[in-house]
């Protein structure tokens, strides 16, 4: 029996080593191409990843992409709607086996977003998602749904410009930093943020008692 445990432990250790090493044998260009294709199909417009793309599996599942650009539709002056320096995320591995998604961190850095309404009334924030029709061939899995939590979600050094060329209205948000955490949908969510809006600096701390209640149309408290 002791030998069985020894071999089982050795086999598990070898498996973990293989999982940890696997991403290093896959060219980064493969990750980039897959990310660009999936994102472009989802949004219905070109998405490019000009920087590096990294993926690792152990001890957490993590991925990062750098220099991401989401193009504007045809007819807009600026070439891109969104430009981001880096997007990073990590998910704890072991809780997945218990049908629980525990996000360790999501980080969106140096993001620049430009929302525009043209003089003709066209807007650049409406996406044409490419979705396949639901013919019932791929039924949803049964059983308990996944639960989720987010240890930390961060937005650092973000800027947003809203410009309405019909009315001449323009709003500028810059130097925006935010950090949020959520243990579960029925637990309080906290958010801290600061930035500059229309040349006025601001900061706030927010606590929402139950995001699940709010999304269900039930009364929730915000401090």
Q: Would you kindly provide a written description of the structure presented here, covering whatever features stand out?
A:
There is one protein chain. The chain has helices spanning 2-21, 28-43, 211-215; strands spanning 47-49, 53-56, 60-71, 80-92, 100-117, 147-164, 169-182, 189-197, 200-208. It has 223 residues and is of the alpha+beta class. Strands 1, 2, 3, 4, 5, 6, 7, 8 and 9 form a 9-stranded mixed beta sheet that branches.
Give a short synopsis of this structure.
The chain has 223 residues and is an alpha+beta fold.
Order of helices and strands, N to C? HHEEEEEEEEEH
Parts with pLDDT < 50 across at least 5 consecutive residues: none
On the 0 to 100 scale, the average pLDDT is 81
The rounded Rg comes to 22 Å
* Spatial separation of the terminal alpha carbons: 58 Å
Strand content: 35-45%
Helix content: 10-25%
- Structural class, from secondary structure content? alpha+beta
* SS summary, helix count: 3
Strand element count: 9
For the largest beta-sheet, the strand count, sense and barrel status come to:
9 strands, mixed
Q: Which outline best applies?
A: globular
């Amino acid at each position: 029996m002791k030998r069985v445990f020894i071999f089982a432990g050795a086999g598990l250790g070898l498996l973990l080593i293989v999982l940890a090493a696997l991403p290093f044998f896959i060219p980064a260009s493969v990750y980039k191409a897959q990310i660009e294709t999936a994102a472009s199909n989802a949004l219905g417009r070109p998405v490019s990843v000009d920087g590096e793309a990294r993926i690792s599996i152990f001890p957490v599942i993590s991925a990062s992409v750098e220099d991401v650009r989401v193009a504007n539709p045809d007819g807009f002056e600026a070439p891109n709607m969104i430009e981001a320096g880096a997007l990073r995320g990590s998910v704890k591995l072991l809780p997945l086996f218990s049908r629980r998604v525990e996000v360790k961190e999501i980080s969106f850095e140096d993001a620049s977003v430009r929302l525009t309404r043209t003089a003709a009334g066209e807007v650049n924030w409406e996406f044409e998602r490419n979705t396949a029709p639901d013919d019932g061939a791929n039924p949803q899995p049964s059983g308990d749904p996944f639960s989720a939590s987010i240890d930390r979600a961060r937005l650092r050094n973000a800027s947003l410009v809203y410009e309405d060329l019909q009315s001449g209205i323009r709003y500028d948000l810059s130097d925006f930093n935010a950090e949020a955490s959520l243990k579960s949908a029925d637990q309080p969510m906290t958010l801290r943020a600061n930035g500059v809006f229309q040349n006025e600096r601001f900061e706030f701390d927010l606590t929402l008692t139950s995001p699940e209640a709010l999304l269900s149309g039930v009364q929730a408290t915000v401090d």
